[in-house]
Fold this protein.
Amino acid sequence: MSNAAVNDTLDHLFRHEYGRLVSLFTNRYSSHLIDKIEDAVQEALYKAAKVWSYQEMPENPSAWLYRVANNKLIDFLRKDNKSADWEHHEASIIEKETTELELPEEKAIVDDQLRMIFACCHPAMKPIEQLMLSLKLLCGLSIKEIARALLKNEEATKKAITRAKKKFKVEVGELRVPSDDEIESRLSLVLQVIYLLFNEGYKATEGDKLIKTELCEEAIRLGFLLTNEPNCDKGELKGLISMMLFKAARFPARMDDEGNLLTLEYQDRKLYDEEYIKWGWDFLRQSSVEETTSAYQLEAAISAYYTTARTYEVTNWKTILGLYNRLVEIKPIPVVQMSRVVVLSKVEGPARALEVMESIEPEIKGNQSFHALKADLYAEVGNWAQARSFLQKAITQAQNIAERKFLEKKLQDWIGK
């Protein structure tokens, strides 16, 4: 296997296995060991990167990572054998070392992840800490990715995660799926974690890929995993799954053969994944059974209109704007308001959209997407000087290579206009 293929496989394994292994070992040992568990899983992945670069990958890489991470964790504990952690776990470690160590069955892993999802959203922690901890432990996102997802400063994000881990060790104890009432109170945070994970995959913070498919697949997998718990299988969850499926259906058409970004207008719709679209409709219909309309259901409906329009030109912009008007009432955050502005420009024109941009500018002024959108709107009204100025600001902030290339090409096309 080539180095590139190994790296792609490792990236997929990291995103897919990280949360599974952290959940499994936390339930197997203790929430008190969360730092050591993370270290052990990361060490196993690092070893895999080294070994598999010159050796054939094992038939069951998940089981290999599990065994290596477990051995690393035992080594960490033995070296720290004066600690309470060691005394608490010595007997169980000896017992486990005398038996053949095999990866648990999938059902057990699913149960561990369900417990971990709700443990990360423990009420002892602030909602923002719950989100950060979930994205770190369950999803394996970096500090930079988490900071970007939550529009936070990196250093502040790092400190908040450290605080959240301390609370996790003290408050959580044994992992468990909470009672019915507790599930209802924590579910909205759990869904937000999955939503943010998908968004990071849909438009990656950094790197040479615009789309991190493995992150989106992991978000969809976690969504499906929650359907195993009857008290989670509600309209909100089904709306979220529907939205992710409709967006994921467009992945094959979002980049050309050379890796260049293609906007919705230029995508080959014959490449859209029909199976994902079918599932998207199924989940959207199921979410509509409930009387209350959720933000996720509205976003799913918006994604459905984008994805199923026969051509870009016949997209039903007026209906989409109506959905965004309702969504802004439920979820009046700057990112949603900017998405609405894009649609507003199609219905009422770019000049009107620019007026609305002024009202949300104080909240999101320094954001790259804000500068890029403002550049496009100024280009549409023919103010090329302002368009180039805002586009240059967006380019300086772009950390993703594919996105920066797209913006730089656009700037070249605008020179002389």
